[in-house]
């Protein structure tokens, strides 16, 4: 669990104060008649009722026999969070990295998305306030939610996303929005730093009885640390709530984001060694970009029927426009030294519109020793547009018409049965019914490629949680994994024509320990979460870049693969000098073992792209005046860039510093990253057999400095 230790200390002190108030002599609160001796009369007081509050997110986490992390969104204002990868920095089991420092990131959870279609970012289902953001076919190609708008981020790894109904290998991530009821009436946040970064946010909100509303306007611009890496983003986020009654809450959400990114492209080994901050020359001449305009409207309701029953329901609509020049002209001189000029054989500019309707309903029931959750997710996505020839970032003639349709329904039911003292049996299942309908029409020939398939699966799960006392738990679970292909993977099937891929499926076993200890005069505060898992996957879908048409991929099912790993998060707050000063270390560690399993071509090779290990942490000094400072560090293991394991990208380590001051009305931070200016590979492309001449390397950020100021009114 990721929570701020400052919040843990505050909670522990608050609990002591409340406890002291509750054990005061009861006569002090009793009705007492005036003293006959003429003494002072006591005033009759109204009856006082004390209501306990059970946090729904933490309650779900405590009843999950597997790893679930909760990230406090308030911590994003104490360090530089420029993209979703920054926000997930301390989440073990998740490998998230930006190739240029911008919003476009590579995302993998428990070994998902380790192939040439990494820009599809499938394998993890993204939610916003419990409503699906990921499209019906499972891709996250166009955008991720802005983490700075989140009060909390919940990461449910792998099969632990059952309570979200997610059908993916990597699990689910839910961004829970800030509202006027948990924010200051007016906030201003500015963040600036190296490579031309300037961003600002203005948030205003109000609560008027049963109504509340909040509006955020933000803007970000950056030059980037690589050539041809500029980014410009503006966004508007709004939500409003109505407490219809003590039992019913309704809320609407609106989002509009206009994000333009230049893409620097990948480099060969020689280019990277000569100057890792340069752009791929074809990215400049082809003017590679990822420009997305997103509009989203959603509504959600929560009905607390009674003390033991709750119903959540919601509906969302999202419209995305994509303009994506991504492959420069590939020229071939057909007659060699002859008189004919070279001719273009391929280039690519994607210009599509994507519309997604999504809905969800979740019913919670507590009955005796049983805590039951039943739910459904629905989604329908339509993608229309075209693939064009690319002429320096301009459309230069239509190559193919795109008309893709996908639908999905995920039904899930889980029961948490406390069958004995300190023992909870968790059992349930998910049913998935989904459709892929891909229509690509070649304009020149009129040929229609129409792979179409329906996918369905029943995915059971069983686990047990044992309370060890003082908030500590041990757990174990066995679950089935399942994920259908995306439309992009289907249209790039290596067999061509109307052939369809099989869905990925398998089983996973997971064991773990988690717990915490609040700060006291005798002991420091601690929290820890350690999980180990082992999964055997059948028909995993992997893609390699087509050497004859760079920018496109060839997808196929792999008979057997293995995904295993260890995820650990440990943090503490160690007081000294009477508790006025503290040392607060935090370490997130991941060990990965993702391999082929006796494959006819690749044997037991490692899967590419994911490092063998990732250790990220910090050791901060804090005091009661709100000052904090300390080092940060990253240790990232080696990884392969190809399925054949012939191209190895070396490990690296980074050192940083961050400091700041937190006060009730304002907060200030400064952060220095990559203190030693280490040159390293941030993200990479994947090949079947990679060579030194392949352009697959993207540099990580060099030494950089950031500062941020937050004002609350």
UniProtKB/TrEMBL annotation:
Keywords: Cell outer membrane, Membrane, Receptor, Signal, TonB box, Transmembrane, Transmembrane beta strand, Transport. Residues 264-675 form the TonB-dependent receptor-like beta-barrel domain. Residues 1-30 form the signal peptide. It is found in: Cell outer membrane. It is a multi-pass membrane protein. Residues 62-172 form the TonB-dependent receptor plug domain. Belongs to the TonB-dependent receptor family. This is TonB-dependent receptor. The lineage of its organism: Bacteria, Pseudomonadati, Pseudomonadota, Gammaproteobacteria, Lysobacterales.
